[in-house]
Amino acid sequence: MTNQNGRFGIHGGQYIPETLMNAVIELEEAYDHYKNDPEFNRELTELFNEYAGRPSRLYYAEKMTEDLGGAKIYLKREDLNHTGAHKINNVLGQALLAKKMGKTRLIAETGAGQHGVATATAAALMGMECVVFMGEEDTVRQALNVYRMRLLGAEVIPVKTGTATLKDAVSEAMREWTSRISDTHYCLGSVMGPHPFPTIVRDFQAVISKEIKEQILQKEGRLPDAVVACVGGGSNAIGSFYHFIEDEGVRLIGCEAAGKGIDSFETAATVNTGRVGIFHGMKSYFCQDEYGQIAPVYSISAGLDYPGVGPEHAWLHDIGRAEYVPVTDEESVNAFEYLARTEGIIPAIESAHAVAHAMKIAPGMSRDQIIVITISGRGDKDCAAIARYRGEDIYE
Amino acid sequence: MSNIRKAFENGKAFIPFITCGDPDLETTAAIVRAAVANGADLIELGIPFSDPTAEGPVIQGANLRALSGGVTTDKIFDLVRDLRRDVKVPMVFMTYANVVFSYGAERFISICREIGMDGLILPDVPYEEKEEFLPICRRYGVDLISLIAPTSEDRIAMIAREAEGFLYIVSSLGVTGVRSEIRTDLGSIVETVRQNTEIPCAIGFGISTPEQAAKMSGISDGAIVGSAIVRLIGQYGKDAPKYVGEYVKEMKDALK
């Protein structure tokens, strides 16, 4: 899907300081070598299967299907992976690659804390040092994940600059990488940043759609009509879409965090409200003001609270292959509660954005149609925040 | 010939960096004039960006102060129009790709030409991405300044051969900010630069004392100082022009 300069249409590229150029070139060369290396792929598959618990289940949500009265709904259970989210797929791949490259230290940004926990986990497993940058506001919203990272041996650095959320954590991790490159790999958590990250992360996450395709063909003997996933940077979504991009009959729907609504200033719906810009190493859509200053974004979900979107999504939007729809906090919280009560599955508030949209479209579809929703993570981490949203204070 | 060359005709060049609009644009104008009166050879004017990923805490703080004070790209263009009534030394903008891209690269760069800006430094636009801006810069006679880093190694020759205006050599790994010691082997970097281009090169990142400036200009054609000046501005606010003027004089004297 990419050309040689890491472009997806006009998007992507390598807009980074000269100091990092040789580091990304070295990474690209190493990745191009190892992605075709049988031994690397054998090790990664073993980690996926034996350590992370893959393949993840494709679960027929029968009660939800009956309740909504339309399309048949399947849930891709990335929440059942080790560490509780799809993030582990990418992290195991990058940590293994970094280790092959002789790096001894992983740094990462994290929003909700899922990617930070996954990186800390891989670092512990592979005997690497780990430093995670997390917006100070997010360390408060996701205190439990901060503790998990520390328990796993990682150092967590609260980022106080800017809006003290995910974008600032990315900026700070990039600054750190600029100051220490030789022994350090920046384990970027989403399909964003400079080339080759959007491609590497997508390839490691593409296992999601590879499995969905095999599983749905086995269960239903046909492809789904729609695949629905939430989009912040967009890693679980691109992972869920990738092997269906060529299958034009499969609608690909990315659910953006609209926060309090796309007509409000408190939103993080990048494709719906942003415009093309250059930031964090890539050209893509960004929420920004008329002078190109990156806008503060808002969502109840710390993992979707990012002002940009991965360049491949920007391209899929441009060519009309994928749709990007806004989902509000209120709709997501309703879906969070709905899935818990209907199926006994508590999804991450990020994934609840996808559930919410599927709840909107399923009733209008026929009973012989199929929707696959990617449940990118589990929702334990969100319980306190959702309780607060509903006006109830609980202690973790 | 590039106007920027003139900055290197008075011995070793001293190049101060100033964030526009910190604490306000009137003070920025006074600081630029004080710097020029005290021997600054080239002025690097920073257009603030909300998320300056190549900056350390000092310049990040200045960006934030300037933006919360309401500074915009258009107001900075007006500042330059005012400055150009009497300031004759070469001036360049330092900002991030999105500030230029979002304004419309052609519109931004044509205004640079019209108001008398000589160059543009974009720290998040490496060699591989310069085609986004370089053809437009060439059309309007605005030099797109290239940077070389301690990690550039085999890239130095390639970058130097196509460089315009002057070459900005980054002294150290990491972001901008004052450093007590600069350990990079800058001598060998400059040697490779010299083998590949005739244009002058100046060293920046981490320089704050007259001793460091003298040492850096001993190796190259000039010294760029940002954080040390921005810190003075943060400390003295509206009274900063006097202190920056004194500092520039001390630094320029050390280069003589």
Shape field of chain A: globular
**Helix content range of the residues of chain A, please?**
40-55%
Number of strands of chain A: 14
Beta-strand segment tally of chain B: 8
Categorize the overall geometry of chain B. Answer: globular
How many helices of chain B does DSSP assign?
11
The averaged pLDDT of chain B comes out at: 96
Q: Ends of chain B: how far apart?
A: 25 Å
Tally of DSSP helical segments of chain A: 16
Please write out the topology.
The complex is a heterodimer of chains A (396) and B (256).
Chain A: E1 7-8, E2 11-15, H1 18-34, H2 38-51, E3 58-60, H3 62-68, E4 72-77, H4 87-100, E5 105-110, H5 114-126, E6 129-135, H6 136-141, H7 143-151, E7 155-159, H8 166-179, E8 184-186, H9 197-205, H10 207-220, E9 226-231, H11 235-241, E10 251-259, H12 270-273, E11 275-279, E12 281-286, H13 311-318, E13 322-328, H14 329-343, H15 349-361, E14 370-375, H16 383-389
Parallel strand pairs in A: 4-14, 5-6, 5-8, 6-7, 9-10, 9-14, 10-13
Antiparallel strand pairs in A: 1-2, 2-12, 3-4, 11-12
Chain B: E1 13-19, H1 25-37, E2 43-46, H2 57-68, H3 73-83, E3 91-94, H4 97-103, H5 105-115, E4 119-121, H6 134-140, E5 143-148, H7 156-161, E6 167-170, H8 186-196, E7 201-204, H9 210-219, E8 222-225, H10 227-236, H11 240-255
Parallel strand pairs in B: 1-2, 1-8, 2-3, 3-4, 4-5, 5-6, 6-7
Helix pairs in contact in B: 1-3, 1-11, 2-10, 4-5, 9-11, 10-11
Report on the architecture of this protein:
The complex is a heterodimer of chains A (about 400) and B (about 260). Chain A contains 16 helices and 14 strands. In chain A, helix 14 (about 330-345) packs across helix 15. Chain A is globular. Chain A is α/β, with parallel strands linked by helices and about 400 residues long. In chain A, strand 5, helix 5 (about 115-125) and strand 6 form a beta-alpha-beta unit. Chain B is an alpha/beta fold and about 260 residues long. Chain B has one domain (about 10-255): TIM Barrel (Alpha-Beta Barrel). Chain B has helices at about 25-35, 55-70, 75-85, 95-105, 105-115, 135-140, 155-160, 185-195, 210-220, 225-235, 240-255, and strands at about 15-20, 45, 90-95, 120, 145-150, 165-170, 200-205, 220-225. In chain B, strands 7-6-5-4-3-2-1-8 form an 8-stranded parallel β-sheet. The longest helix of chain B is centred in the C-terminal third of the chain and has 16 residues, at about 240-255. Chain B is globular and about 45 Å long. The mean pLDDT of chain B is about 95.
